Amino acid sequence: MKASSFFTKEQQAKILASVKAAEEATSGEIRVHIETSCSGSVLDRAAWIFSKLGMYKTAERNGVLFYLAVTDKKFAIIGDAGINAKVPEGFWDAISGLLQKNFREGKFTEGLSEGIIKAGEQLKTHFPHKADDVNELSDEISFDKPAGA
């Protein structure tokens, strides 16, 4: 199964709507990247994708990446330095647990959407939306090899 066809257009729209809803009340930035496979360490791969997508370039270093490799059934959540310095210990583990529970039940869209909303709640707490905020990163889901990679 290819990453780009893992989710239907309707499922992709739901995930995208979750990103937009999560970002409404925060200056934080959330991206979703889906790959067909990941042969090595999922955290290393997600960190590499985080870098390739330029997620470290946000003004407050408050980007979050949800990474999913569909054929290998691997996922990771990567938060930038700004958000990691502020979220409570175990926060990413709690979101990972939520994703894992949903994924085990085959609820990939629901798992991603719920995780994105939870991340947005923490971003809102620590990085509230300001009148002059701009959307620094694309909200679109990226697939397989990101541009420039």
CATH class category label? Alpha Beta
What is the tally of beta strands?
4
**What is the makeup of the main sheet?**
4 strands, mixed
Specify the overall morphology: globular
Share of helical residues: 40-55%
Strand content: 5-15%
Question: Radius of gyration, Cα only, in angstroms?
Answer: 14 Å
Rounded average pLDDT: 91
Protein described:
There is one protein chain. The protein is an alpha/beta fold. The protein has one domain: Diaminopimelate Epimerase, Chain A, domain 1. Helix content is 42%, strand content 15%. It has five helices and four strands. The chain has helices at 9-23, 42-52, 81-84, 91-104, 108-126; strands spanning 29-35, 63-69, 74-79, 142-143. Helix 2 (42-52) links the parallel strand 1 and strand 2 (63-69). It is globular and about 40 Å long. The mean pLDDT is 91.
Summarize the structure.
The chain is of the alpha/beta class.
Which key phrases capture this entry?
149 residues; alpha/beta; four-stranded mixed beta sheet
Secondary structure blueprint with pairings:
Layout lengths: L8 H15 L5 E7 L6 H11 L10 E7 L4 E6 L1 H4 L6 H14 L3 H19 L15 E2 L6
Parallel strand pairs: 1-2, 1-4
Antiparallel strand pairs: 2-3
Helix pairs in contact: 1-5, 4-5
